[in-house]
Specification:
alpha+beta; 4-stranded antiparallel β-sheet; about 40% helix; about 20% strand; globular
């Protein structure tokens, strides 16, 4: 699973942060944490941190583990750059698509909906990681200025999350 989340910078004077905007949300001055997680266990395997204005599809390759297998991502990762990065590491991209060519009545729209449904069912699991980080680990805002310190904060948060998640997984497997 590959996705990114925006985390606000410690200060608007942080020169290494960038402005990230989304269609419906207010712009945020901060950093993006690009995360690669295992689909079955929801453990963070790889991550990279960039300024907030870096596009997900251009920086997503930094969160790809070696030999990733099937890689599920949202529509921000459409395009040849990310697909070729996944294939170069031996993976298969499964990315949400937003359009498809077809003629009326040939089932193209139904194929698109079916594809996106199958990708979204798996891809949505990564959102749990970001929710836990922001709700439980204080990752709504960075504590220090600078990209290196932001990357350290994100890595420490990922480490804490993985330890807690591993304990939960081990507890449920021994209880079964």
């Amino acid at each position: 699973l590959i996705d990114a989340t925006v985390i606000a910078s410690a200060s608007h004077q942080d020169g290494e942060a960038g402005w990230a905007a989304h269609r419906t949300r207010k712009a945020v001055h901060g950093f993006k944490a690009h995360v690669g997680a295992d689909a079955d266990t929801a453990l963070v395997e790889e991550l990279s941190v960039t300024p907030g204005n870096v596009h997900d599809g251009r920086a997503g390759h930094g969160a790809l583990p070696d030999d990733p297998g099937a890689v599920y991502a949202d529509s921000a990762y459409r395009g040849g750059a990310f697909a070729s990065a996944v294939q170069a590491k031996g993976g298969f991209p499964h990315v949400v698509q937003t359009g498809i060519w077809g003629r009326e009545g040939d089932g193209a729209l139904q194929k698109l909906r079916s594809w996106n449904y199958s990708v979204q069912r798996v891809r949505c699991r990564i959102e749990k990681i970001f929710g836990t980080w922001k709700r439980s680990y204080g990752m709504r805002r960075m504590r220090w200025r600078g990209l290196a310190k932001a990357a350290l904060q994100v890595r420490l948060t990922a480490l804490a999350y993985n330890l807690k998640r591993t304990a939960t997984i081990l507890r449920t497997t021994t209880a079964s």
